[in-house]
Write a structure and sequence with these properties.
About 45% of the residues lie in helices and about 10% in strands. It is of the alpha/beta class. It has two domains: about 5-170, Alpha/beta knot, CATH 3.40.1280.10; about 180-240, no CATH class.
């Protein structure tokens, strides 16, 4: 019998554009097995509670109370960390972190609201979702068969998290920025880069995505985020001020 882990209180399972209600039910059942309570669905395709209950036995309350969002931004706005699960290499991000390494990091990290993003069954995480992640994590597998299905991926990750002990997870000592603040910083930074001629959105330059990810990886504190926002806002105003 697995002991109840405190990590289940602040872990949020986020399924981005799931295509099959049966898979949603399977994920919900795994959540109930391991004590996780927060399920979010981003633009699910023809979501059917009745169909999800076929595979989500004993998870009816969780399925019926899943939070459905029209956008990923709405789901992750209050989060303090966003982690995506993907086996794909992204050139401007480097290789995904192996699951055991991320689990070891999470055991040392403060207890903070964390969104765990799983992509759609056929194509995985969208580019929009990947750009929002502080970290991409890969579940180890054989090279010949690198991808797990949606329910398997969620189950494996939740099982490893559920094995963490109370004493291994520290209390939070400093306030971290919300993802809503990161998105605000993204918008102001993009405006500054465009106004200064450093980056043009229409050119397909990956610089904006690289900088967005860089801000997330350094894990600023909330006071540091306020300073960063104030700095970029001041630069934005100066760039738009007409010369006398």
């Amino acid at each position: 019998m697995l002991p109840q882990s405190p990590i289940a209180d602040f872990i949020h399972i986020v399924l981005v554009e799931p295509q099959d209600s049966l898979n949603i039910g399977s994920v919900a059942r795994a959540m109930m097995n391991l004590g996780f309570r927060h399920l979010h669905l981003i633009r699910p395709h023809e979501f059917s509670i009745e169909k999800a209950l076929v595979t989500g036995r004993w998870a009816e309350d969780l399925i019926r109370n899943a939070t459905i969002h029209d956008s990923l931004s709405a789901a992750i706005a209050p989060m303090r960390d966003v982690v995506g699960f993907s086996s794909h290499h992204r050139p401007h991000r480097g290789q995904p972190t192996p699951l055991p390494d991320w689990i070891a990091e999470k055991a040392r990290a403060p207890r903070e609201p964390t969104a765990m993003l799983f992509g759609r069954e056929d194509t995985g995480l969208t580019n929009e979702a990947i750009e929002q992640c502080r970290m991409l994590v890969r579940i180890p597998s054989r090279d010949e068969y690198p991808a797990f299905n949606l329910a398997q991926s969620a189950l494996l990750v939740m099982y490893e998290l559920s094995r963490l002990e109370w004493a291994s997870i520290p209390e939070r000592h400093e306030e971290l920025p919300s993802w809503n603040q990161y998105e605000h910083l993204d918008r102001v930074c993009a405006e500054v880069m465009a106004a200064s001629g450093f980056h043009r959105r229409e050119d397909g330059d990956p610089t904006a995505a690289l900088i967005k990810n860089m801000f997330r990886r350094i894990k600023m504190s909330e006071p540091e985020m306020r300073v960063m926002l104030a700095l970029f806002n001041r630069v934005r105003i100066a760039l738009h001020r007409k010369p006398e």
